[in-house]
């Protein structure tokens, strides 16, 4: 199987490092403007004479480029597998007609903590969920000046709402579709960026669960935490400490500790699922578009 990775920034490099170790991958080529040694590379998609030789495409470029690159790939090939990094697009576009199998790279669905949480809540009535996720933007990619990253530039598809749209995806995946949402999406800090650095929302799902969600670029303590109040339990899931704490009505505590979750674990599991035709937990093209619809309906506001 031959793989083509479009984009070779930090996320493209991670996909490459993961995918090149799979036994069923014959080669992994890349599309990048960088000068890269020892890897077959092209400056742009149009430089590839016969793009149909590839079986699996991974679109890992800036979000603002996703639509045109996906549209080009779909115009050239059929019955291939295509994974597009999250979020799928930077805004709503016309549908792409395609016979390809297209997926959105919400790899956190493969995090053991989230998978266990989803399983625990399968038959539970969830009353209220509080989700907090944030990290100080200058510490995200220490090798790069944050002011020069795509995250800092709203025109490149940056901003915390798009960067941390994982939270929108797994909220819908675990707790149900949003029926109503109110929000604040703005830039509030002294970061030298023109994109949003905080998004906070209150929403109601079709299962009548109330969701309070806050994501940010400003937290000096990295956090990714979910507090769930269900009919029988309160559950605290921590994706950084890799723990789930369950409290029953008598305040008895059960702690589930997940050990040694490698930083590439969720990427490995996601790629394996796609390559092995096991799509049940992979974010579909349709679900990816729904997240874009949610994001597109949210307008950046000044306070």
What does this structure look like?
The chain is built from seven helices and 15 strands. With 303 residues, it is an alpha/beta fold. The chain has two domains: 2-105, 3-Layer(aba) Sandwich (Rossmann fold); 108-259, Dihydrodipicolinate Reductase, domain 2. An eight-stranded mixed β-sheet has the order 8-9-10-7-11-12-13-14. Strands 3-2-1-4-5-6-15 form a seven-stranded mixed β-sheet, sandwiched between helices. The longest helix has 13 residues, at 285-297. The N and C termini lie far apart (51 Å). The relative contact order is 0.16.
Total number of β-strand segments?
Answer: 15
For this structure, the CATH topology of the largest domain is: Dihydrodipicolinate Reductase, domain 2
The CATH architecture term of the largest domain is: 2-Layer Sandwich
Tally of discrete structural domains: 2
Strand content: 25-35%
Q: Count of helices? A: 7
Q: Give the overall silhouette.
A: globular
Whole-number radius of gyration? Answer: 20 Å
Distance between the termini: 51 Å
Within CATH, the superfamily of the largest domain carries the name: Dihydrodipicolinate Reductase, domain 2
Q: Secondary-structure map with pairings?
A:
Layout: E1 2-6, H1 10-19, E2 27-31, E3 41-42, E4 56-59, H2 66-76, E5 81-85, E6 101-105, H3 112-120, E7 126-134, H4 160-163, H5 166-175, E8 178-186, E9 198-205, E10 210-216, E11 223-230, E12 234-238, E13 243-247, E14 253-257, H6 265-275, E15 283-284, H7 285-297
Parallel strand pairs: 1-2, 1-4, 2-3, 4-5, 5-6, 7-10
Antiparallel strand pairs: 6-15, 7-11, 8-9, 9-10, 11-12, 12-13, 13-14
